[in-house]
What we know:
By secondary structure, the protein is mainly alpha-helical. The chain has one domain. It is 72% helix and 0% strand. It has helices spanning 8-32, 34-41, 50-60, 65-83. Helix 2 (34-41) packs antiparallel against helix 3. It is elongated.
Amino acid sequence: xxxxxxxxxxLLAGAIFCVIGAIGGVFFxxxxxxxxxxxxxxxxxxxxxxxxxxxxWLENAHYWPWxxxxxxxxxxxxxxxxxxxxxx
Length: 88
């Protein structure tokens, strides 16, 4: 089963699966990061701006293995579903 011969809607669905997996990987990495733990415990000061801490954490880019892993796992899951003909 060659993915290069799939119809356009299946390729698009696979790409959406991979993007959702990558977003899940970023979420998991954020929940495990030290910046998240510090931001959750801060009531005042520079660490209390939760979204600002998240954006600074994104700029440092120490999280990239998790979105990559999420995208690969989601892509393999989609491929297995297509291989087993679970989705039409």
